[in-house]
C-alpha cells in the first residue's frame, strides 16, 4: 500500500484535537504556512502536506495523466485525510487549493467542518461579463515562458504575485520557491490551475465557507471574490487591507485574525 504520509510529506503538529489542514497553492509548498501555524498550535491538530509534484513530496508518484485536472489534487487531499482518519476538519486553502478543498468537500462533505479560502478563484480567465483577470493569450504567454525560460518566468512572476515591493526578501523567497520546482510538473500544474473553471460547482458546497480576499491582488481581482460570495450560499466574505496574492506570508497577523474570527 502506498505510504501517503511519505508521498505527500505529511506533518502533524499542535496540541489540540480539532484538525485544521493547510493546503498550499500553485508553485509553493507547506513551508508557506510557517507564519500562520504558531497561532493554532495550542488549540488545533495542524496537518501540513505537499501536493504530489510540489515541495518535498514524492515526485515519482506524479503522472501527467492523474494530475491533468484538479481531481488528481483533490484525491491527494482526500488521501491525506483518510490516511490520518480525520473527520470534520477545517480546511484552509490558498489560491487554487481553495478550489481543491471545495471539490473535495463536495465529494466527501463529512470530512469537512469549514472551508477557509485565501485568494480563491473558480476561473482565472475572463469570460463575457465574468472578469477572471486573464485573457487566454496571457495564460498561453505565461506557459510558453515557463517552457522556454523557467528561471526567467520565476523572476518575472514572483514580484507581481507577492506585490509587496517594500519587503524584497519576501519576493526573493517566492522566486526561489518557484525556481526550486520541477519545471515540467510546475508548467502542467500552472496549466491545470489557470485554465480550470469550477464556477458550476460553487452551488454544490454544503459546509460553511470563508472567502478571504486581498484589497489588491494581481492574480485575483476583487470581482472574483464578490462572485464567489454571491454563488456560494451562506458564505462569509472578508476583504483584507493586505495587498498581494500571499497575505499569509506578507501579512500573517491580519490573515490569522480573519481565520480566527471566522472560527
TrEMBL record:
InterPro entries in UniProt: AB_hydrolase_1, AB_hydrolase_fold
Pfam families: Abhydrolase_6
One GO molecular-function entry: hydrolase activity
Residue intervals of the AB hydrolase-1 domain: 20-255
Annotated Gene3D superfamilies: alpha/beta hydrolase
Keyword tags: Hydrolase
Family (UniProt): Belongs to the AB hydrolase superfamily.
Name under which the protein is recorded: Pimeloyl-ACP methyl ester carboxylesterase
UniProt organism field: Lysinibacillus fusiformis
